[in-house]
Design a protein that fits this description.
By secondary structure, the chain is of the alpha/beta class. Strands 3-2-4-5-7-6 form a six-stranded parallel beta sheet, with helices on both faces. Helix 3 packs parallel to helix 4. The two termini are about 20 Å apart.
Length: about 290
């Protein structure tokens, strides 16, 4: 579903005052459903790790950052959203492979990385783990995440956290939050009004799409449903099965959509992946007229 077809539904605002940036991030992580965070601590993220350990969130230590990323990805696929927390440079850049994979396979992972403090960056010092300049890691993650933010400005940090986490839950893809170590305990001066936003379909666009789909199905002789990974990510398995059973339309699955429907179900047509599929499945799907 494209953003242009989604209308936000706003709920009651909650006024936030007196929380630090680190405390607010932990609160929001819990509110989006994260109960466990994977990762490895390092000096640029130690302050936030101390907060995590004192919070209800369970911290799962890993041996390598890339493994922590893969663990968070697997957790996200089961739980609906996951998180990984690492230090700057050697930690964050080690996550690139696992987070790029999560992006390709639509897995919602929140990446939290420490960073040198804003005040440490004066006159561009040569700090450990720094690669080229202080924006390098942020620039890298902008290429493999749907939303990013450097939490360097207390006046907008809470809003940036809300924006990035909303993008993760809406798009079902990774996001990146970079937290300078001298910002963890900073309490913004102004109160923040958090409004939870639920994405809902635009009524006119939805009606047009349903009408067109209804006409196509009514006019075809051999319809097939091709179920992809989006069914998993958005939790639509029951709705898919109800639709298929009420219309008696067979279901084929992509490789990433495997298990959205039980393979013993009478309407299951097989696993379709183009030329790599079994010949009879390929023929059945590609001969469909809808």
């Amino acid at each position: 579903m494209h953003d242009a077809q989604v209308a936000p539904r706003r709920h009651e605002a909650h006024r936030v005052l007196g929380l630090s940036i680190g405390e607010y991030l932990i609160r929001r992580l819990q509110e989006v459903g994260i109960r466990d965070v994977f990762g490895i601590p390092g000096d640029y993220i130690l302050g936030f790790y101390s907060m995590l350990e004192q919070s209800p969130i369970n911290v799962v230590g890993c041996c390598r950052e890339d493994n922590a990323g893969f663990a968070a990805d697997a957790y996200a696929r089961i739980n609906g959203i996951g998180a990984v927390c690492v230090t700057y440079g050697v930690g964050g850049l080690s996550l690139c492979n696992s987070i790029a994979g999560a992006y390709a396979e639509k897995s919602p992972v929140v990446v939290i990385s420490g960073a040198p403090g804003i005040r440490e960056r004066y006159k561009n010092p040569l700090l450990h783990h720094k690669v080229r300049d202080f924006r390098t890691q942020l620039d890298v993650f902008e290429k493999i995440c749907v939303a990013t933010a450097e939490l360097a400005d207390p006046s907008v940090a809470f809003r940036d956290i809300d924006r990035v986490l909303s993008a993760c839950t809406r798009s079902k893809r990774p996001v990146y939050l970079e937290l300078p170590r001298d910002m963890v305990r900073v309490v913004p001066d102004a109160p923040h009004e958090f409004r939870s936003v639920e994405a809902t379909s635009d009524p006119e666009a939805l009606a047009e799409a349903v009408g067109e789909a209804t006409r196509l199905i009514a006019g075809c002789r051999k319809p097939v449903i091709l179920a992809g990974v989006e069914i998993h990510r958005y939790g639509l398995q029951d709705e898919l099965l109800h639709f298929a059973e009420s219309t008696r339309i067979p279901i084929a699955c992509t490789v990433m959509g495997k298990s959205v429907v039980h393979e013993t179900h009478p309407l299951f047509a097989g696993l379709y992946e183009g030329a790599m599929s079994r010949a009879e499945v390929t023929q059945f799907v590609e001969e469909s007229d809808c």
